[in-house]
Amino acid sequence: xxxxxxxxxxxxxxxxxxxxxxxxxxxxxxxxxxxxxxxxxxxxxxxxxxxxxxxxxxxxxxxxxxxxxxxxxxxxxxxxxxxxxxxxxxxxxxxxxxxxxxxxxxxxxxxxxxxxxxxxxxxxxxxxxxxxxxxxxxxxxxxxxxxxxxxxxxxxxxxxxxxxxxxxxxxxxxxxxxxxxxxxxxxxxxxxxxxxxxxxxxxxxxxxxxxxxxxxxxxxxxxxxxxxxxxxxxxxxxxxxxxxxxxxxxxxxxxxxxxxxxxxxxxxxxxxxxxxxxxxxxxxxxxxxxxxxxxxxxxxxxxxxxxxxxxxxxxxxxxxxxxxxxxxxxxxxxxxxxxxxxxxxxxxxxxxxxxxxxxxxxxxxxxxxxxxxxxxxxxxxxxxxxxxxxxxxxxxxxxxxxxxxxxxxxxxxxxxxxxxxxxxxxxxxxxxxxxxxxxxxxxxxxxxxxx
Length: 451
Ligand SMILES: Cc1ncc(COP(=O)(O)O)c(C=O)c1O
Known about the structure:
Blueprint (H helix, E strand, L loop, with lengths): L4 H11 L12 E5 L2 E4 L4 E4 L2 H4 L8 H13 L10 H13 L6 E5 L2 H15 L5 E5 L8 H5 L18 E4 L10 H21 L6 E6 L2 E2 L5 E2 L9 H12 L2 E5 L14 H4 L5 E4 L10 E5 L1 H4 L15 H16 L2 H19 L4 E2 L20 H4 L4 E5 L2 E5 L3 H13 L2 E2 L1 E3 L5 E4 L7 H13 L2
Parallel strand pairs: 3-16, 5-6, 5-7, 7-10, 10-11, 13-14
Antiparallel strand pairs: 1-2, 2-3, 4-12, 8-9, 11-12, 14-15, 15-18, 17-18
Helix pairs in contact: 3-11, 4-11, 12-15
Bound molecules: pyridoxal-5'-phosphate.
Pyridoxal-5'-phosphate binds next to helix 5.
C-alpha cells in the first residue's frame, strides 16, 4: 500500500532521531536535474542542491551510469587492496588543485576531512598546541571539527569542553558594517587587529595552523576581503603563516569544486594553502571528503597514523572522476560565471539601488577604490543586499522574519531555499551548476515576488 507524506512524517518522528533538523516537511518521491518531486508528485525547483552538493543536479545520467558500472564491478574493499578509481581521482585532483597540492587523503565527509587536516597539522608541527580559526565558521560536527566551529552555539554547547588550544579570531566581514567610514576603518586596520590578537592572545610560535573558509559558507556567504582586488586578507594570512612557519588550511568544503566559477575559491585570491579541505560538491552527491597537501607535507603522516574504512570508496571516487570530466568537457565553470551575472543583474533590475557586490569573473581588480560601488543595502535599499561569488550567492534581508517569510512563501510556490548566517536573515542561493537560465530566472521571479 502506498503511503502519503503524512504517513512518512509520522514514522519519521517515531523512528528517527530529532537531532537532525529538516528544512521542510517535504517527503521526497524522486529527484531529477534541478527539481525534486514530493511523494504526492508536487514539483519543486531546488535552489539548495542538497546544501551546495549536487553540482550536476540530481541524478545526472552519466554519473548514475558510472555509479552503476562501478557498483557492479566492486563496491567496497577498504584498504585491503589498492584500487584504480581511488588512484585515478587523486591524480586528477592534483591536476586541478592550485600550486603544489598534489597528495590527497580521502574521507567520507567534510567534518572527517577537517579532522584529518588538523591531525596532519599536529603531526607536522609537533609542540605547537594551538589552532586559530575564524568566527562564524562552520567546519563540521565531529568532536574535532565542531571544536573549530563558531557559527552557532547549538553545535557546541552540549558537548563542551571541546578540543583544547582552539583560538577564535574575527572573520573580517566588510559586508555587514553599516557605514562607509566603518568599512574603511576595518580594511585599513585589519593588519593591526590581526597582529594585536596574535600579540595578546596567542603567540605565533605556538600556532600549528590557521584555518579559514575563503568564502564563509554557513556563516553567511561572506567572501574574505580581497576577492575584488582590494585588501587581500588571504594573502596577508599567507605571508603571516610563512613568516611564522604556521600551516594555512583552507576549508573549501562548500566553496570548492566549481561552486564559485573556479575549481577552488582560493584561485580568486591567488593564494595556495598548505592544506586544502574538500567534500560536498567533490562527488556530486556521493559521500566523499578529502584533504590535500604537497607530497612533502602529506608524507609527514606515517603509515597507520590515520585511516577510514569507507573513505575514498570505489563508487564515490568513480562518481567524482566523472563529475570532473563533465565539468571540464561541458565548460561548466564558464557557465557558472554567466549564471551568477544573471542573478546579480536580475536583482539589480528588480531592486534598483540595492547594494550589489558583483561577482568577479576573472579575479582581476574591479575598482581601485575598495568599497565604493558596492555600498550597502542598509543605506540604499532597505530590502535587500546581495553578495557572493559564482553560484554561492547570499540574499541578505533586514531581519530573520523577512527571510523566513520569503523562504516560506517561495516554498508554497514551488521553490526550495535554504537560509544561512548567524542572524538567520540570509537566504543562500546554491543551485546546481547545470541549472538552465530559464529555470533559474523562474526561481528568481518567485523569490522577488515574495520580497
Ligand atoms: C565549510 C564547511 N566545512 C565543513 C563542513 C562539514 O561537512 P560535512 O557536513 O560533510 O561533515 C561543511 C558543511 O556544511 C561546510 O560548509
